[in-house]
Design goal:
flat; 367 residues; mainly alpha; 0% strand; single chain
């Protein structure tokens, strides 16, 4: 078995079809490829040079400035205010809805419940246990023993009245009669039917089967010569050659289109390089010189004379706003106490009172 794929032999028909098809495909595909490549280049230039910078200038930079200098300070102020309001609401909710119910449960319902449980145990549970242990349990055991005796007697009475007579009737009456009837039915019905099936119906069935087989073979032969053989001839000598010719034509058209597309790509590449160099000489180089020689110095001057002072002023305004916010927080909530040192001075007592205007804690200024 040959593992490599061998090329199919090509006839004169294939060669005669290939050249006109490729010429026609090249004529039709080259303008389409040139237009496609031109649109692709224009789209890339618009995306990279116009839309992306324009979106960055019109959307990204204003959005960043708005977030940094407007939304973030407002959000921090709102968060600080929300935390204060949340703490106040938390303490208010605890004072109104939690602490009263906790006190009612701890100092009211729990003692009352314990007292009621003790009363129920003394007045109900202990008498009920004594009544069950010394009255109801002995009476129940006596009634159970009496019930078991009555049940045994009723069982023997039921067997003697309702079970043993019917068992005797079934064993000594119905079973022998049924066996006799079964023997009569076998001798009068089953044996004659079996003899008739074996000696009469079986030969007739074999004859009918052989007749059906003969008729089926005749019908199959007629169908084969009337339908199958003409259809097979039409498929082998008409449809297969026409299909092969159409397949060769489609394959050659596809190969011609691919070849024309590749050739058009080379042509489009050459035209694109020429137009690119022409655009560079006429537009890009003058624009680059203008950017380097004119716009860059102007931009540096605007940055040094306008943007940097404005940025410095914005930083100062931001620092003033932060200082004012810190002053407002200090005025509303007071200055937080400094953290206590981890190591205390051994000369000072551990439980000393805080210093006030009218007292002193040093050894030299005590009264």
């Amino acid at each position: 078995m040959d593992l490599e794929k061998r090329p199919e032999p090509e006839g004169c028909l294939v060669v005669a079809i290939r050249l006109p098809v490729r010429i026609l495909a090249l004529v039709l595909v080259v303008p389409v490829r040139l237009a496609w490549d031109a649109l692709t280049v224009v789209g890339r230039v618009l995306r990279d040079r116009v839309l992306v910078p324009l979106a960055r200038v019109l959307v990204v930079v204003p959005a960043v400035w708005l977030y940094a200098y407007v939304l973030a300070p407002v959000g921090r102020a709102m968060a600080w205010l929300g935390r204060g309001v949340g703490v106040g609401l938390r303490w208010l909710g605890l004072a109104l809805f939690v602490w009263p119910w906790v006190a009612l449960w701890r100092y009211g319902l729990v003692p009352v419940g314990l007292a009621l449980a003790w009363l129920v145990r003394v007045l109900v549970v202990v008498p009920a246990v004594w009544l069950y242990a010394y009255v109801l349990a002995p009476v129940g055991r006596a009634m159970a023993w009496l019930g078991r005796g009555v049940g045994v007697g009723l069982r023997w009475l039921g067997l003697a009245l309702f079970v043993w007579p019917w068992v005797a009737l079934w064993r000594y009456g119905l079973v022998p009669v049924g066996l006799a009837l079964a023997w009569l039915v076998r001798m009068l019905v089953v044996v004659p039917c079996a003899w008739a099936y074996t000696h009469l119906l079986t030969p007739v069935g074999h004859a009918l089967r052989w007749a059906a087989l003969a008729l089926g073979r005749c019908a199959a032969t007629l169908v084969r010569w009337i339908f199958v053989v003409p259809a097979l001839t039409l498929w082998r000598w008409v449809l297969v050659p026409v299909g092969r010719a159409l397949a060769v034509l489609a394959r050659e058209i596809g190969a011609a289109l691919g070849h024309a597309w590749r050739v058009a790509g080379y042509v489009s590449l050459a035209v694109g390089r020429f137009l690119g160099r022409l655009l560079r000489w006429l537009v890009v180089d003058p624009l680059r010189w203008t950017y380097r020689s004119v716009l860059t110095p102007v931009g540096h001057a605007v940055r040094d004379q306008v943007w940097r002072p404005v940025a410095r002023l914005a930083k100062e305004i931001r620092a003033s706003v932060r200082q004012a916010r810190a002053d407002i927080r200090r005025a509303l909530f007071g200055t937080p106490p400094p953290p206590e040192p981890q190591v205390r001075d051994r000369r000072e007592p551990s439980g000393a009172r805080p210093r006030t205007l009218g007292s002193s804690t040093t050894a030299l200024t005590k009264d």
